[in-house]
Amino acid sequence: MYSLLGAVFFWWVEREYEQELIKQEKLFLDHLRNDTISRLKRLLLKSIFYRKILLWYESQLIKLKMTKGLEWDMWGALFYVGTILTTIGYGNIAPRTSGGRALSIVYAIFGIPLVLAILSEFGRMFTTFVSNQRIAETRKRQKLWDKRRRNYVRTIPIWLALFICIGWICICAGLFCLWETHWSYFTSLYFFFISLSTIGLGDVVPDHPHMLILMFWLVIIGLSIVSMLISVIQIKFEEWLYHLMIRMQVSFL
């Protein structure tokens, strides 16, 4: 609901300004095209080499600097909201108005902590689920259960959390290749890793962002798994520090 509400606000703020920019760009191109035709006619009549006029035309196009990116429709707004909430920020869509930029600041202030809390909770849920599965398998094999172990922190080995994280990245990279057919598997793998690490370089972005929105849950689940991995590493590190302090106390006493 928070994402949908944000998308509506961003679409309402940015859409009109974007339409005005598109209109101005079309008018400029029409004027440039007519001016170029008239110049070509004069040059051809005077038998001047026409390459000069083509160079002039290219220089005028460079000045235009038409922005390549997503349009500010509802899909584009939802995509932009997703990049804010996940802190990825691919850069292929961004607000141009002062109102849109101010709204981005306010939306991020409330949205990012909310998503971080959700991802943290999902990470704990994944850790608990995998840990319970391992405990159940252990109980089946041993048929005995030491009740004292129930007081231990439920966690999983680092290698297992890392395996789940890498496996999810590889699976999702293959899924991205299904609709981004011009991508190689390595490009898809690179894109998904950059997304999960929230770096968001923007050098590789999907040509079908609508499909990315429909499957944005892959990124959310992936971020939850990364949160689980970080949580497991933190728990193991805290346990190592605790045992190290115990050994140091025993040694000095």
TrEMBL record:
Keywords for the protein's UniProt record, in alphabetical order: Ion channel, Ion transport, Membrane, Transmembrane, Transmembrane helix, Transport
Transmembrane helix as UniProt keyword: yes
Major place of residence: membrane
Signal peptide: none
UniProt superkingdom: Eukaryota
UniProt keyword Transmembrane present: yes
SUPFAM superfamilies, per the entry: Voltage-gated potassium channels
Topological relation to the membrane, as annotated: Multi-pass membrane protein
GO annotations of cellular component type: plasma membrane
Localization: Membrane
MF GO annotations: outward rectifier potassium channel activity; potassium ion leak channel activity
Gene Ontology biological-process entries: stabilization of membrane potential
Pfam families with a match to the protein in the record: Ion_trans_2 (PF07885)
Stated family: Belongs to the two pore domain potassium channel (TC 1.A.1.8) family.
The protein's name in its UniProt record: Ion channel
